[in-house]
Amino acid sequence: MSNDKKNPAAGNAPSSNFVRAIVDNDLAAGTHKRDGMPEVITRFPPEPNGYLHIGHAKSICLNFGLARDYDGRCHLRFDDTNPEKEDQEYVDTIMDSVKWLGFSWEQGGTEYLHYASDYFGKLYEMAEYLIRTGKAYVDSQSAEEMSKNRGNFGTPGTNSRFRDRPVEESLQIFRDMKAGKYKDGEHVLRAKMSEDAMASPIMTNRDPALYRIRHAHHHRTGDDWCIYPMYDYTHPVSDALEDITHSLCTLEFQDHRPFYDWLVETLADGGFFQRPVPRQYEFARLNLTYVVTSKRKLRQLVDDGVVTGWDDPRMPTIVGLRRRGYTPESIQLFCDRIGVSKADGWIDMGTLEGALRDDLDPKAPRAIAVLRPLKLIVDNFPEGEAHACSSPVHPHHPEWGNRSFPFTRELWIEQEDFMETPAKGYFRFTPPVDGQPGSRVRLKYGYVVECTGYDKDADGKVTAVYVNYFPDSKSGTPGADNYKVKGNITWVSAATALEAEVRLYDRLFLEPQPDAGGKDFKAALNPNALETVTAYLEPGMKDAVADQRFQFERHGYFVADRVDSQPGKPVFNRVTTLKDSWGK
Ligand code: ATP
Ligand code: MG
Questions:
Q1: Are 247 and 201 in a shared domain?
Q2: 56: CA distance to ligand 1 center in Å?
Q3: Quick one: which atom of ligand 1 is closest to the CA of 59?
Q4: CA–CA distance from 505 to each of 53, 288, 341, 431, 469 (Å)?
Q5: Does 522 qualify as catalytic in the annotation?
Q6: Which of 143, 333, 518, 523 is the most exposed place for a label (fewest CB within 10 A)?
Q7: Is residue 285 annotated as part of the catalytic site, yes or no?
Q8: Who lines ligand 1 at CB under 6 A?
Q9: Is residue 189 part of a domain?
Q10: What's the Rg (C-alpha) of the chain?
Q11: Do residues 403 and 481 both lie within one domain?
């Protein structure tokens, strides 16, 4: 792969990090050199038990990004060893999300799409090898006994009374486990890394389980198996079988590394795979403020109806972010900016939103929207007439041309653009008072107008504002600059505006760390995370198609909702406001 495939949003080489330093050293030393093979082979190994979230995006950008930048390859591997929780629906959405983020597991015409379940046969064979060589045994303790005998952080474990059972006996029971002769939980296959492994200060070295009995239907292997390999056993073996060079995982797996190394070395000794074996490295997971990134908690929000689904635009899932209007480039840019480190920390939601703004600003065509409409009547403008006004599609892309919209007698302006009794420094519409004329403002891209009066209903709510316009003040015409005004107000023509549903999304939680310390994260939900308004948009917006993004001047970035938009009748989601005003 050539360098021009590097992340275009990043603009330059991805920032360096400790993982890249490791890879650079390995390349210099030829650590993973093999004939005809890339020296950087990574993998992204999701469990198909839910939808991917922004935390997974960090891992995807890291793994696929390394492969891209070092002429290597990255495998997509489904870690599907928990039959009860997994489903094809999740496999499909995960593949979609990885592709949408801009990555591919295809390389040189080969698809590196793998399933741990494809290795069930080999995993079984290797397990028998471990038993035969005295490196694994069948444990028949009860779950309670096993847990008690594991000891804890400060107390060494106690050997199971089955630990030294004859190899032949373990082998026979293991085969009978596979043959379905036992119930769930009756026996477990455990590793024996060393004679005194149960006293290891590292809990995960204390005879970790390799296989358990589960009479469960698997979404890919059906009822072929009633024993399933454990994640800790499956993962290193899958890495080695796929010739992974750098196996990157999150920090909580640091303690699993000794077992990882022991297993791949032991099985390489047994001739199951070639050397060099893969190496595991740990990086800090992404913790993002104002969201939760645990599949279990996200599922709870969906199941409890707090959100409309996994793709609700308030969700930090990839499908949610996509529907909200995030671009793949903005997420890549975010991942590049936050980097990869070895220390856990929190990243502010503002960083994600900032990357989004930086990505959208140069790309998004401009448009006018009035979100909270108030009628403005131009008294001296002839009824039925329309004057064409125009403005650039994008201020920095003159080549994109202009858009056109009519100025008519009745317009919509924002309610907040009129004040009966103006506050100090308020330069928008204010009525005449005590013989003083009303304020003069420019209707952006249109005429200068002067406020002459307003209507109020019985509740005191302002229902219409009246103005007169100055025919020689039209923007872009000679003499227009003779009018000096401080206010420049956005508007749309009531005669031609597109009435549209606009969903004003905000952060899902009010607290930066809604689930910190195990507290009830649902207590911190933001009740105002969605406000739906009926807005008036400039007429061209009727042609907006699903996923098309715009900057609505002064309001922020909006996208035509990919689910609910109809031809000629788009529904818009607010992706983000123009500035970070949160909590300020
Ligand atoms: P969850 O705890 O939400 O269920 P998980 O870690 O169990 O997530 P997996 O499907 O096993 O989800 O994760 C696939 C890969 O994504 C793993 O390599 C994991 O380390 C990585 N990953 C998951 N969450 C994060 C995160 N917040 N930051 C970085 N990487 C993550
Ligand atoms: Mg997991």
A1: no
A2: 5
A3: 30
A4: 18, 18, 31, 33, 36
A5: no
A6: 518
A7: yes
A8: 45-47, 55-56, 58-59, 249-250, 285-286, 293-295
A9: yes
A10: 31
A11: yes
Which protein residue has the closest C-alpha to ligand 1 atom 23?
A: 56
Compute the distance from residue 193 Cα to the ligand 2 centre, in Å. 24
- Structural domain boundaries enclosing 127: 121-231
CB 333, CB 355: distance < 8 Å = yes
Catalytic residue, from 132, 150, 285, 299: name it.
285
Q: pTM of the entire structure?
A: 0.94
**Nearest residue by C-alpha to atom 27 in ligand 1:** 55
For residue 90, which ligand has an atom nearest its CA? 1
Q: Are residues 166 and 136 part of one domain?
A: yes
**Secondary structure letter of residue 400 according to DSSP:** G
Domain count, the chain: 4
Q: Which of 20, 192, 206, 295 is catalytic?
A: 295
Q: Mark whether 363 is an active-site residue.
A: no
217-231 pLDDT, tens digit each: 999 999 999 999 999
- Whether 532 and 504 have beta carbons less than 8 Å apart is answered as yes
* pLDDT one-digit tens code per residue, 122-170: 999 999 999 999 999 999 999 999 999 999 988 999 999 999 999 999 9
CATH of the domain at 561: 2.40.240.10
Structure tokens at 557: 């970035």
Same domain, 102 and 126: no
Residues, the chain: 584
